[in-house]
Amino acid sequence: MNGSDRGLSRRAFVRSAVAIGGASALAACLQREETADVPQAELAPDELPDRQHAWNEFLAEDDHGNVEPPEHHLLLALEYVGDGPADAEDERERLEAAFRTLEKAYKRGDEGLAFTVGYGPNYFDRFDADLPEGVDLPDPEALAPIEDPHLDEYDALVHLASDYGHVTLSAEEALKGELDELNGLAVEDTFEGIFDVAERRTGFIGRGLPAERQSGVGGIPDSEPVPEDAPLFMGFKSGFRKTQASEDRVTIDSGPFAGGTTIHLSKIQLHLHQWYEQDSRDQRVAKMFSPTHADDDLVEGAGHNLGDSSGVAEVGGDAAADARNRGTVGHAQKAARAREDGEPIILRRDFDSTDDDRAAVHFLSLQRSIADFVKTRRAMTGSDLTEGSVNSRTNNGILQYISVRNRANYLVPPRRHRSLPEPNPE
Ligand code: HEM
Q1: How far apart are CA 257 and CA 176, in angstroms?
Q2: Which of 238, 304, 329 to mutate to test the pocket of ligand 1 (most atoms within 8 A of CB)?
Q3: pTM for the full model?
Q4: Cα-flanking dihedrals φ and ψ of residue 339, to 5°?
Q5: Are residues 324 and 392 both part of a single domain?
Q6: Could you tell me if residue 107 is inside a domain?
């Protein structure tokens, strides 16, 4: 690794190291990143919120009050090592000690570590009992007429996020039982012998990071067109305060899993040749936001000028009318049709990826029920809009530039049930 890092910027280097993983990548990463001041926990585990997904209060905000997601992300897809249902109390205690080690070693948030653990339908199928009424965790399925995704069958998913690549890598190594110490604290336990890591997926989000990472990546033209100020490969800012569901809106509000949420995770490949080489800037703005956004020049650069809202609900105009009259409809404009009481019903925590040297998005969203995701995705697909001049793919938002490769659903229990939960824990 020492030889191949020449010429790579520090941040690009750290992202490659996160993608590779393992002890030597971690060592290399530790040499390159500023490591002296990653803060240990300020709150004892018992003082942390019961919601695993309560991240926003611990993350940085920009000048408009938009939450700034951590820069580095690592997804560990896990298989339970045992054959039957997870029922051994000692395994539950070991796992809880492993998660508490992470919570003590790092302050929660982008300056330290934010993480969640969720469990898939296959994990709960191991038990005779059913999930309680009101918890919606269906098997994943294809959701659009034009897709044929692989449906993941993992037992569990750990999502690790931090502004430091070495923190996500260290947490992974500690969980796997490869480290005795984490950020100066003894590792109390690990998931060794309980879970195997079946797949790792990695990524990043933040101004400048995609531009730095675009070179030689499949799905992106060789001209390296991704703008410097873009937080994502497609060139625009995503996740405004007013276009995201609140953490309250996505939290399960009753039953034994109250305080929990669900994750939908898809892996989406990007095909950005036409996007950057044939479409004009106005077409990109129209397809991402709305034709009105292009007509009225509402978006400067990546859209940081938009403040705390994309404006699709306020000025975006009617999706059906734009489809009929303009032959183009915007991605955000369409997705906003899924809002309830004026507010989005999913909280997006997605990020870009160059896993396997392919430009992709790990689309991770939180919602109270998977049905809320399905409803939003239907609104985004917009099959109802294609009767007039909008072709089912071209000019229909960004559908033409993306293909969904994997889909998965997970239940993220509240912290009190995060370690090997039974389907009906109370
Ligand atoms: C490949 C990936 C995608 C990219 C690059 C992307 C990008 C964006 C951008 C730039 C916006 C406008 C800014 C904002 O409000 O955040 C937006 C809005 C939105 N997107 Fe996506 N998106 C992608 C995939 C998806 C998917 C798969 C869904 C799932 C249904 C989705 C749901 C939404 C929603 C709900 C909104 C906000 C709508 C509202 O204002 O109510 N996006 N997206």
Answers
A1: 27
A2: 238
A3: 0.95
A4: -60, 155
A5: yes
A6: yes
pLDDT at res. 23: 81
List, for residues 357-390, the tens digit of each pLDDT value: 999 999 999 999 999 999 999 999 999 887 655 6
Q: Does residue 229 lie in a domain region? A: yes
Strand partners, 150: 406
Closest CA to 330 of 343, 318, 341: 318
Q: List Cα–Cα distances, 173 to 54, 166, 307, 398, in angstroms.
A: 24, 10, 39, 37
Q: What atom in ligand 1 is closest to the CA of residue 270?
A: 1
**Residue 251 maps to a domain:** yes
Same domain for 77 and 223, yes or no, is yes
C-alpha distances in angstroms, 240 versus 291, 345, 347? 19, 14, 10
Provide CB contacts within 8 A for 378, sequence distance 6+. 143, 338
> What are the pLDDT digits (tens) for 314-351?
999 899 999 988 999 999 999 999 999 999 999 999 99
Which residue among 380, 381, 396, 406 is best mutated to probe the pocket of ligand 1, counting the most ligand atoms within 8 A of its Cβ? Answer: 380
The total number of structural domains in the chain stands at 2
Backbone angles phi, psi at 332, to 5 degrees: -70, -40
232 CA distance to ligand 1 middle (Å): 12
- Closest residue by Cα to atom 18, ligand 1, is 332
The answer as to whether 156 is a domain residue is yes
- Does the C-beta of 25 come closer than 6 Å to ligand 1? no
Q: Which residues form the domain of 332?
A: 270-344+375-406
Per DSSP, helices labelled H in 21-152 are: 22-32, 89-105, 121-125
Residues 234 and 330 in one domain: no
**pLDDT tens digit sequence for 86-122:** 778 899 999 999 999 999 999 999 999 999 999 999 9
Return the H-helix or E-strand segment holding 162.
strand 156-162
In the block, which residue shows the tokens 């005795």?
A: 180
Instruction: Identify whether residues 75 and 117 lie together within a single domain.
Output: yes
Statement to judge: residues 287 and 141 lie in one domain? no
402 lines ligand 1 (CB under 6 A): yes
> Rounded to whole angstroms, how far apart are CA atoms 113 and 48?
13
Same domain, 204 and 320: no
Nearest CA to ligand 1 atom 25: 363
